[in-house]
What we know:
Order of helices and strands: EHHHHHHHHHHHEHEHHHEH
Mean pLDDT: 95
Strand content: under 5%
Number of domains: 1
Distance between the termini: 34 Å
Low-confidence stretches: none
Number of strands: 4
Number of helices: 16
Strand order of the largest sheet: 1-2
Amino acid sequence: MSNFQAAKFDNTVEKEFLTTLRKRVMGYFKENNTPKEANATMVIKSIFMVTLFTTPYVLMIAGFIQNPWMVFFMYILMGFGMTGIGLCIMHDANHGAYSKNPKVNKYMGLLLNYVGGNALNWKIQHNMLHHSYTNVDGLDEDINPGAVMRFSPHQPRLKHHKYQHVYAWVLYSLMTLSWLMVKDFKQLKRYHKMGLAEPASQKSFKRVMLELTFSKVIYWGLIVFLPMFLLPVSWWVVALGVIVMNLIAGLILAMIFQPAHVMPESAYPLPDQSGKIDNNWAIHQLMTTQNFAPKKRIFSWLVGGLNFQVEHHLFPNICHVHYSKIAPIIEATAKEYGIPYHSRATFREALIYHGKMLKMLGQTDMAQ
Length: 368
């Protein structure tokens, strides 16, 4: 039996806004006779990112790359490929936005397991909790890093938080290493206790824990131990390469996701005693989410359109290759209804203000 207590939004507030927004956005696809799922550009990008991760590994295992410096460089390339798979492929697929075919979404989503993560945990944390209850302390795990950092004004402020705007970037880089080693196991146990794991997987807890363990053993065997065994380099070259690969992926992923929500403009609403949030879900997303670098086409291509976080949060079932087209529709509709639409002109500006927000949260008791 689930002990998870979800909050409820008051969707009677500005109900017309969401109805109008959906009509206009869906109208764009109908008028242009364009499917809202992946297109040829998305397929090409998917091939590129999987190749960027896989080819360096194959070159090493096949014996074409044996120089220690080149082995290390191959792992660096894999770090960028790992990031690309996370941002550009599995993210859409696990939202059901890659294809109309559920099986395609399933297997493309499992690319997260291919790079060491776990698709089931990700769906629960990201789809069920983060997207449903964005910036709601106690429900959105993306703003609950534990005592090490403070992402919400409702969380206790500890002495070491004073410096979190400095050390945050180091911790961000450790994100995927944490997934690989302990976080996925801890999360799965927690989601089991919350009553979320079994419904999401349609399997027993014993089965999903066994699958998680098996996938981790396969990953570590292929990415770490097999190269150590086959390559004519010291074991520490491979170990260091794997660490750097994950540091690259962890830092880039965090730098893309964190400035979307932990920002000076971001709202952090709390449910009342009955569990009700006094706002419409769609308006809540606009108040807690921010875009950045919307006019940077190459940047947007590289980060899977996740610089358009507002569009993604409002329409997660639309593939990211369409975000730049629907963004003007959403911005104009929000302004028409007097609802904020937050956006920073550049990625650099977004990172600067994210750092400022971390500093404010770490050094002051901000009111909400």
